[in-house]
Amino acid sequence: MIKVNSLIKSFGHPETRVLKNLSFEIPQGQFVSIWGRSGSGKTTLLYLLSTLDKPTSGSVTLNNNNPALMNEKQLHDFRNLNIGFIFQFHYLLPELSALENVLLPARRNNLHKDYEPRAIELLNEVGLGEKTSRLPSQLSGGEQQRVAIARSLIMKPKFIFADEPTGSLDTQNGQKVMELLLKAHNEYKTTVVLVTHEKEYAQQAERRIFLVDGIIESDETKG
User: Are 22 and 45 in contact (CB under 8 A)?
Assistant: First the structure.
């Protein structure tokens, strides 16, 4: 479960408050979209939920763990074992094959040989089973993003945080990404938090949090 309590995030001098006293919970296994216009605070919120940034005040806990209280090693270990990240740009290492990129999180724990069968299985699931040895430069943009999704799933994370994962893709590939996220959510009971500015993708989540100027304007769950 993710718990957000009186969360405030400010930047700069003079201070600009981007998130304004947010409190809510995300139960384990829920698929949530956070959406809104540019500047609404949605990406800032995702970075706080996903341990990539710390709040100005208030707290975020993931399964009763407060990332703001962890040292660098504890935070690294927690992320690697519990969290999968997907960004608008895939951030694949260009000198590594698709398979090697998927195995990067396992390699950090020297488990890449143990996880290789799972990596191959995931690449098959995302439709790239015949392209495991290809470099990112030999893959299309949509294929590279699917490699990034497989990489995010390799350690069977409890949480996946996706920041505009369809933003650089055409409609067809964007929908494929959404289908893969929904499949991961349904099959692995992973908590998925998706940031998007596109209403059509936001509506595919079971819960939709709409931000306006750092405040939750609406919070709806499918009946």
Answer: yes
List, in sequence order, every residue forming a beta bridge with 24; answer none if it has no partner: 4
d(CA 62, CA 205): 20
Task: Supply the DSSP symbol for 71.
Answer: -
Amino acid identity for residue 9 in this structure: K
Task: Confirm if 219 and 34 have CB atoms less than 8 A apart.
Answer: no
| Dihedrals phi, psi of 138, to nearest 5 degrees | -95, 5
**Spatial distance between the Cα atoms of 62 and 91, rounded to a whole number of angstroms:** 25
- Residues 48 and 8: their CA atoms lie apart, in Å, by 10
Burial class (CB in 10 A: 0-12, 13-18, 19+), 16: exposed
Q: Burial level of 26, CB count in 10 A (0-12/13-18/19+)?
A: buried
Q: What are the two backbone dihedrals, phi and then psi, of residue 4, each rounded to the nearest 5 degrees?
A: -115, 125
Query: Which residue from 8, 22, 53 is spatially nearest to 163, judged by alpha carbons?
Result: 53
Segment 13-50, tens digit of pLDDT: 888 899 999 999 999 999 999 999 888 999 999 999 99
Write the DSSP assignment of 10-37 as a string of letters: EETTTTEEEEEEEEEEE-TT-EEEEE-S
11 C-beta neighbours (distance < 10 Å), count: 10
CB 24 within 8 A of CB 187: no
> What's the CA gap between 173 and 175, in Å, rounded?
5
pTM above threshold 0.90 = no
Among residues 161, 168, 145, the alpha carbon closest in space to that of 195 is found at 161
